Amino acid sequence: MKRRKINSLSTKIVFLIALVSLFITFIVFSVFEKINREAFHQIEIEKADIIAKTIEPLIALNIYLDMQENVNQIVLQLIENPNILSVKIQTPDKVVNETISKRYKENVDGSFVVENIIFRPNSKQEIGTLSLVYSNKRYKELISKHTNLTLILLSGLGIIFIFFSLYIKKLLSPLRAISKLLKEYSPEQNIEIPFASQNNEIGLISSTLNDMQQKISEYAKRQKDINHYLEEKVTEKTSQLRHQLYSNSLTNLPNRLSLLKDIAFFNDTALLIINIDDFKEINDFFGHFVGDTILIKFSSRLMVMLEQDKNIVVHHLFGDEFALLFTQKPPLQDFIKIAQKLISDIEKIIFFHENNEIGIRVTIGGAYQVDGGLEKADIALKSAKKHQKSFLLYDEKLHIEEQYKENMEWVKKLKKAIDQDKIVPFFQPIFDNSTDKIVSYECLIRLIDSNNNIISPSLFLNIAKKSRLYSILTKIMIEKSCSYFEHLDYDFSVNLSVEDILDKDIVDYIKSKIKIHNVENKIIFEILESEGIENYEEVSIFIQEMKELGCRIAIDDFGSGYSNFEHLLKLNIDYIKIDGTLIKNLDKDKNAQIIVEIIVDFAKRLNILTVAEFVHSREIFEKVKELHVDRTQGFFLAEPQQNIDFEVK
Amino acid sequence: MKKAVILLFILVSFSYGYTYNKLLLKAQASIFPKIIMLDKKLEGKLVEGKIIYTIVYEKNDYETALEIEKFIDEKYNGRFNDYAYKINLVEFADLSQETQASAIYSLNSENYIKKVAEIAEQKGVVTFSYDIDNLKNGLLFSLMLEKSTVLYFNKKNLHPYNINFVDSLYQIVKFVESKNDIQKNLYNKTLWFKNQNTAIAGL
After folding, report:
1. Which residues in chain B touch residue A118, judged by CB atoms under 8 angstroms apart?
2. A65 and B172 in contact by Cβ < 8 A?
3. Could you state, in order of their start, the residue ranges of all structural domains in chain B?
4. Which of B34, B82, B148 has its CB closest to that of A70?
5. Do residues A550 and A491 touch, judged by C-beta distance below 8 A?
6. pTM for this structure?
7. B2 at A interface, C-beta within 8 A
8. How far is residue A287's CA from residue A506's CA, in Å, rounded to a whole number?
9. Residue closest to B41 by CA, chosen among A122, A391, A502
10. Do A256 and A315 form a contact (C-beta atoms < 8 A)?
11. What angle do CA B15, B16, B21 make, to 5 degrees?
């Protein structure tokens, strides 16, 4: 472990005090140095000035009295002063005396000159000047003395600080010792800190640390007990959570996550997924409590059925779906037999609720491969459901994966077509059977692929519904159809699914578009009856709103579903488009003729116009007319085109 | 023979008046007027705005007095610094209280020196003496040419109420207070004259 570098507190304190003191000393020294230098210099100047002023009257008098000798003597006396380097006495017309000291050369540096005017005695008249060159020697000596004293002071201070720092270090040394001792401290083992007897701060700290150790020790003991208790609880809770994570809360069987884990764990497995058929009905009819009870009982029975085979682990995936994982793959024939036997055995189970006997059937999908076992079993289950088989083993030949891939390709194509504006309406005319004239057009959706092939909706419409692109297609058809017929004098119809009608966003879009393009009186909404109109109330509201705007309503594929005439009466529709399955063999199929006749009769009584679709031959066209169907639409008369310049056959 | 001639010359000189040293006379004529200007109370001694420099002499010394006057005029040409001056030649016998004087310069006299001192004291004017010996009789200044020019001053004779010299003057004068001082100075004077006469004789 890297040793932590300790910054000594005592060193810091002393260093800081020394630094501050030096700084203050330096400032004081600098200020005093400056003041003293100036003062010393000023003193020397004043001294020179006093000398000059003192001697000036005497010199003045001697000059005045022409006593040159006296002047010379005075100058000689002056020059004896060690600080005076030269004297010059000058009158306006001559130099009276100029004497230079022997010390002149050595002391002239830094010297200064004092000049004094010589006045005639008892008068203000100037009679000459007195110039003294005054040495700075004394000034330098004073400065030197001052500097030496300061250096001595600083040296003294330095020595004091060294002793001071050593003393502080000694004072604080117990702190280091305490720190060293505390490094070895652990709550299990108390350390006796030695300085507790000292009657100072160190003693106080030591005493407090000893007390603290005691408290920490007690606290650690308590904490250890708590930790032990918490660890036990955490282990218990973790176990519970793990169980919850990997088991179904209702049946307590291993869940889907557990299955995935097991599949990843075992190398060679086989899998069966069991789905209880129409379990929703049990829930709806008997309630969820009964449903849950049946699931619990079913899981128990399943366990009993499979208890002989230790290689099978039962999982409850969710709701009505269970899975059997074979930890050791049995022979394929045995695997299929087990599945079939299960179906048979389960069908024999009877659950009792109050006085009701409840029987269940199951569909099983099986996968005999390791890779993607769960997905493959799931695909097999869905395929079995679709083909109404009780058991289906995943087989590559089912091409289910290919179908999925193809569907995904279609989704891509659809998205691309939407992005590139390749979703277009085609228009197929509807003829009035009494006049043989076109009275309206049905707008049919088409996709134009990258090769400019026109793709029929049967290939992509279901995929669009599954991939949530359907509403986009509806909007495109509404916009393009309304726009196309805005300035044409024809009625036109657009197909709407019940899904569209229930989508408020689509309904708002339709309302805005028919208003923008002003086609309220031209547009006819064809609602597919074949899908089974269950939400009559919502559909009725939509029809009412549309009719209030002036739009008309047609029921498409009428007769294909479970047509409810009573409901249809309430919907206040304008057209019935008879289902193509009734029309395509109408010329030969007597039953179809009867049904069409009933529909036409029913419609006429309600003032609803009837339209025959898929009229593909003259015979059928003749029959349609014979049965008094009001309008005809079909390839026999005209195929859907991208524009309405039709050539009628 | 040469000594006899000199002695004769001296005796003749004494019979016709005092002997004066021209060099000393010139020095005194040059310096004494300047000392008058060092009196701070000079204004009170002016006569009609002029300095009256009175030279008193014995009848026999009239020529000497004239010579002094001539020296002064040559040097000062009618003005002592800021003031015009007038030289008043007066015989000792004529000197009285009425004699106009801003300062009195006294040549030698056997009998009148004290009189000069008394009148000067009464008039409150400065007195100068050719001979230092006269200072003991009440005159104020005299001047000797020694190694250098020496101004003698008898401070006992100073009357501060009327005369007030600049301070520095007192620094350059030699004070004579006792007879010893005067005798000492006289000795110096004699020595100096002796040297002078020797020098003259040498010529």
Report:
1. none
2. yes
3. 18-198
4. B148
5. no
6. 0.42
7. no
8. 35
9. A122
10. yes
11. 105
Which one-letter amino acid corresponds to residue B182?
I
Selected residue of B150, B169, B174 to mutate for chain A interface (largest A Cβ count, 10 A): B169
Provide the sign of the torsion angle of the four alpha carbons B41, B47, B48, B54, taken in this order: negative
Structure tokens at B99: 């004699």
A512-563 confidence digits (pLDDT tens): 999 999 999 999 999 876 555 667 788 888 999 999 999 999 988 887 655 5
Q: Do A122 and B40 touch (CB under 8 A)?
A: yes
CA-closest candidate to residue A324, choices A391, A399, A383, A396: A391
Task: Give me the count of residues in chain A.
Answer: 649
Q: What is the rounded (10 degree) CA torsion for A481, A487, A490, A491?
A: 50
A247 bridge partner residues: A254
Which residue's structure tokens are 């995935």? A260
Separation of alpha carbons A10 and A457, rounded Å:
91
Q: State whether B172 and A58 contact (CB < 8 Å).
A: yes
Q: What is the residue type of B158? A: L
Q: Cβ contact (<8 Å) for B168 and A58? A: yes
Given an 8 Å threshold on Cβ–Cβ distance, is A122 in contact with B166?
A: yes
CATH superfamily of B18-198: Response regulator (3.40.50.2300)
* Chain B interface disruption, residue of A55, A59, A61, most B CBs within 10 A: A61
B90: region left, alpha or beta (phi > 0 left; psi from -120 to 50 alpha) = beta
Q: Does B111 touch chain A (CB under 8 A)?
A: no
Tell me the C-alpha to C-alpha distance, in Å, between residue A628 and each of A575, A599, A620.
14, 11, 12
Contact A365, A392 (CB under 8 A): yes
For B40, name the nearest residue in chain A, comparing CA atoms only: A122
* Closest residue of chain A to B170, computed from CA coordinates: A58
For the stretch A619-636, pLDDT in tens is 999 999 999 999 999 999
Q: Which residues of A touch B147 (CB under 8 A)?
A: 69
Contact yes or no for A428/A638 (Cβ under 8 A):
yes
Pairwise CB contact (< 8 Å): B38 & A57: no
CA nearest to B69, candidates B45, B88, B41, B93: B88
- CA B191 to centroid of chain Cα atoms: 19
- What does the block give as tokens for A238? 């973790």
DSSP-derived pairing of the beta strands A631-632 and A609-612: parallel
d(CA A118, CA A62): 11
B146 to chain A, minimum CA–CA distance in Å? Answer: 11
Task: Please identify which residue in the block is written with the tokens 């007390």.
Answer: A211
| C-alpha atoms less than 13 angstroms from C-alpha of A126 in its C-beta half-sphere | 10
Residue of chain A minimizing CA distance to B146: A69
Chain A touched by B48 (CB under 8 Å)? no
A13: Cβ contacts below 8 Å, ≥ 6 apart = A168
User: Distance (Å, rounded) from C-alpha A457 to C-alpha A497?
Assistant: 14
Residue B112: which of B132, B138, B93, B90 has the closest Cα?
Answer: B93
Q: What is the DSSP letter of A563?
A: -
Interface test with B, best of A65, A127, A130 (most B CBs within 10 A): A65
Closest C-alpha to A429, from A632, A594, A620, A140: A632
Per-residue pLDDT of chain B (203 residues; tens, 9 = 90+): 455 545 444 444 444 567 889 999 999 999 999 999 999 999 999 999 999 999 999 999 999 999 999 999 999 999 998 899 999 999 999 999 999 999 999 999 988 999 999 999 999 999 999 999 899 888 999 999 888 889 999 888 777 667 888 888 988 899 886 555 555 655 555 555 455 444 433 33
Which residues in chain B have Cβ-Cβ distances shorter than 8 Å to A123?
37, 81-82
Q: Do A66 and B31 touch (CB under 8 A)?
A: yes
Q: Which residues does A257 contact at the CB level (< 8 Å), separation at least 6?
A: A245, A246
Both tokens assigned to A201? 């701060």
